[in-house]
């Protein structure tokens, strides 16, 4: 009879497949952060809820469009990194090709590729630009090369997004030809990390982790915020609750996000209007007003030295983040600062369930399970 | 208040009336306050009874009410030297890096620490918030709900780590987010923003060592409560009323 011994292994944080977590003796100590999440909307919604204000409809469409752009960004990063972790190299390069275009959108509206404070209480910072920024030729990039990159950037930002939505379904097909029927991919994911629907709810799962186990639950459909109730899209649901099902769910979500973005582009083209509330107590004045108008200058000064006060009370606002339910619990005592702000990140509940998910699996499957949870450590140790 | 939130509030009142201290229905969200002793019983019923069936515990977090409703900037009246500059550390722990000298004033709310639970019912598509104040400020204890919802595990460990709330019945209540050997609970209102110790590389000892913090924290934007947003008098009255009710109960 073979001798069975138990070992304690330190897994991470240096190993890249651990995504920066260190797992020792069952203690998970998140140490590093590795990617972006879309902070912003849930927090903005909680503040707006307590203030009792609603952003203009055009701002809501813009927010929804950027939420879906971010969902694609997130799923592309997840797909690339997950593939890399369990042996598929090429898909990473493909995924990052499309991510560049989407990052450029963020840069064009906010000036920064990540952590854009584009959503503000009361709307969005500014309307979409009329002209998409273009690449310029340099010593390293010839005019011909640059012209190719600028092919879709001749018109407005909406034109660029529309061109993206035209070609993106083809890109998803490319990823699928690499993975969906790939024998190695299926060997690594089918039947790995199975979670039953009952356990998924007990463990506090949300997002694709819950839908992968066959529970039809998406806040965008069930508790619609912003303008999701006006848009057409479907919610993919898994059957077996293994890593492969969650992969299929996320792939389909990218296609659905593309559909939503397309509908937003059509609406935004035909419906110009304000993107920010006209409320001097909440929204900073425009620079030109500020230089000519005393009232505007005072408002600017008060907003940037003291801020605005939010009525006393508490609110919880949640959105369907690409990784699951991202919520903000906000307690205000009527001051210009939140008294308590708790960020409820989906990855926290998922990572806490890792112990249960890896029981009885091989060591190599730990990597597949961390990957399928779509963990980003910025949301675990906040 | 919305129709669905009012309906939920009424259902809760009917079913649990006695064991709940308060049912608050605000901005379309229902919050239920209760004493720790009734938490487990109510939580189990909320999970299992088809009228409620809150299958998912979304979040547990701690709240320290020590400075609730207390601001550090007098904006209503001026003195001979002008308006308050708002740089006094009226709310404890803001400017000092030594905890021992700090005395937390009696909070305006009657109890200091609360555990807050966010529940979600998938079958009925609605949310509920439970709030449990720990009876003893010096040794805050509330029962653990880990047997009712397994997802409470790490959430309770986090609340213990950051606030020092003890969850009675938790099988493995260790620190989760702070460093090995960390002293104190960093989200308490009397814990200095700068922390107590900093980590530096000691060239002589050729290793990383801890030393007391050397930075001097300062308030850039003072906390201010504008009249009309919160009624500070009301809060004091509330605390007095609760106290009066408590002493009344004891007398009985």
What do you see in this structure?
The complex is a heterodimer of chains A (382) and B (252). Chain A starts with 20 loop residues before the first strand and ends with a helix. Chain A has 16 helices and seven strands. Chain A has 382 residues and is mainly alpha-helical. Chain A is globular, with a radius of gyration of 23 Å. In chain A, α2 packs antiparallel against α10 (243-270) and α3 (90-110) packs antiparallel against α5. By secondary structure, chain B is α/β, with parallel strands linked by helices. Helices cover 23% and strands 23% of the residues of chain B. Chain B is built from four helices and nine strands. Chain B has helices at 3-16, 36-48, 152-163, 232-251; strands at 20-26, 29-34, 56-64, 113-121, 126-133, 141-143, 166-168, 197-202, 207-212. A five-stranded mixed sheet of chain B has the order 1-2-5-4-3. A two-stranded parallel sheet of chain B has the order 6-7. In chain B, strands 8-9 form a two-stranded antiparallel sheet. Mean pLDDT of chain B is 80; it is low at 96-108 and 229-238. The A-B interface holds A 27, 30, 49-50, 52, 201-204, 206, 215, 217, 222-223, 305-307, 309-316, 318, 325, 327, 329, 331, 333-337, 339-340, 342, 344, 348-349, 351-353, 381 and B 26-27, 29, 31, 55-59, 61, 63-64, 67-69, 71, 116, 118, 120, 122, 125, 127, 129, 149-151, 153-155, 174, 177, 221, 223-226, 229-230.
Write the layout of secondary structure elements.
The complex is a heterodimer of chains A (382) and B (252).
Chain A: E1 21-24, E2 27-30, H1 41-51, H2 57-85, H3 90-110, E3 119-120, E4 123-124, H4 143-149, H5 157-179, H6 183-189, H7 197-202, H8 208-211, H9 219-222, H10 243-270, H11 287-292, H12 294-305, E5 313-321, E6 324-332, E7 340-344, H13 346-352, H14 354-358, H15 363-372, H16 378-381
Antiparallel strand pairs in A: 1-2, 3-4, 5-6, 6-7
Helix pairs in contact in A: 2-3, 2-10, 2-15, 3-5, 5-10
Chain B: H1 3-16, E1 20-26, E2 29-34, H2 36-48, E3 56-64, E4 113-121, E5 126-133, E6 141-143, H3 152-163, E7 166-168, E8 197-202, E9 207-212, H4 232-251
Parallel strand pairs in B: 2-5, 6-7
Antiparallel strand pairs in B: 1-2, 3-4, 4-5, 8-9
């Amino acid at each position: 009879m073979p001798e069975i011994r138990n070992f304690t292994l330190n897994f991470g944080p240096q190993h890249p497949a651990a995504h920066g977590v260190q797992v020792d003796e069952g203690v998970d100590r998140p140490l590093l952060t590795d990617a972006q999440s879309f902070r912003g909307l849930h927090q903005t919604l909680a503040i707006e809820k307590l203030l009792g204000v609603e952003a203009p409809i055009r701002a809501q469409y813009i927010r929804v469009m950027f939420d879906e752009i971010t969902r694609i960004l997130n799923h592309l990063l997840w797909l690339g990194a997950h593939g890399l972790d369990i042996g598929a190299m090429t898909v990473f390069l493909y995924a990052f090709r499309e991510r560049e275009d989407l990052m450029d959108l963020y840069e064009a509206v906010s000036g920064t590729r990540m952590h854009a404070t584009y959503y503000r209480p009361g709307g969005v910072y500014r309307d979409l630009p009329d002209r998409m920024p273009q690449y310029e030729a340099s010593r390293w990039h010839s005019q011909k090369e640059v012209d190719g990159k600028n092919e879709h950037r001749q018109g407005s930002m909406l034109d660029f997004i529309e061109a993206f939505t035209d070609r993106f379904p083809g890109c998803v097909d490319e990823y699928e030809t690499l993975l969906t029927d790939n024998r190695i991919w299926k060997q690594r994911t089918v039947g790995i990390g199975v979670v039953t629907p009952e356990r998924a709810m007990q463990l506090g799962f949300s997002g694709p982790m819950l839908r992968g186990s066959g529970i039809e639950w998406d806040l965008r459909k069930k508790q619609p915020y912003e303008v999701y109730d006006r848009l057409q899209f479907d919610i993919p649901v898994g059957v077996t609750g293994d890593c492969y099902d969650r992969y299929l769910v996320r792939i389909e979500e990218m296609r659905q996000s593309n559909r939503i973005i397309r509908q937003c582009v059509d609406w935004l083209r035909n419906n110009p209007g304000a993107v920010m509330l006209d409320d001097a107590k909440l929204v900073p004045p425009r620079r030109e007003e500020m230089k000519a108008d005393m009232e505007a200058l005072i408002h600017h000064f008060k907003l940037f030295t003291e801020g605005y006060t939010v009525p006393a009370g508490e609110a919880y606002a949640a959105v369907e983040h690409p990784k699951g339910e991202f919520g903000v619990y906000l307690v205000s005592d009527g001051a210009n600062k939140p008294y308590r702000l708790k960020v409820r990140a989906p990855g926290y509940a998922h990572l806490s369930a890792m112990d249960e998910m890896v029981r009885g699996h091989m060591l190599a499957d730990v990597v597949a399970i961390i990957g399928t949870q779509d963990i980003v450590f910025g949301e675990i140790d906040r | 208040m919305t129709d669905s939130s009012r309906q939920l509030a009424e259902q809760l009142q009917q079913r649990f009336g006695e064991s709940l201290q308060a049912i608050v229905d605000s901005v379309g969200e229902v919050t239920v306050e209760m004493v720790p002793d009734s938490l487990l019983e109510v939580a189990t019923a909320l999970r299992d009874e088809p009228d409620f069936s809150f299958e998912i515990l979304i979040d547990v977090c701690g709240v320290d009410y020590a400075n609730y409703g207390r601001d550090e900037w007098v904006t209503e009246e001026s003195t001979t030297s002008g308006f308050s500059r708002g740089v006094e550390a009226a709310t404890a722990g803001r400017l000092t890096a030594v905890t021992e000298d700090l005395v937390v004033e009696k909070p305006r709310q009657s109890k200091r620490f609360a555990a807050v639970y966010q529940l979600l019912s998938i079958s009925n598509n609605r949310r509920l918030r439970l709030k449990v104040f720990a009876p003893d400020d010096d040794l805050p204890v509330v029962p653990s709900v880990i047997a009712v919802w397994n997802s409470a595990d790490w959430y309770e460990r986090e609340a213990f780590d950051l606030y020092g709330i003890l969850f009675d019945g938790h099988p493995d209540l260790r620190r989760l987010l702070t460093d090995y050997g960390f002293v104190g609970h960093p989200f308490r209102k009397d814990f200095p923003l700068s922390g107590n110790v900093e980590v530096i590389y000691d060239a002589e000892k050729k290793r990383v060592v801890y030393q007391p913090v050397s930075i001097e924290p300062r308030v850039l934007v003072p906390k201010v409560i504008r009249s009309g947003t919160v009624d500070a008098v009301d809060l004091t009255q509330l605390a007095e009323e609760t106290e009066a009710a408590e002493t009344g109960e004891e007398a009985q």
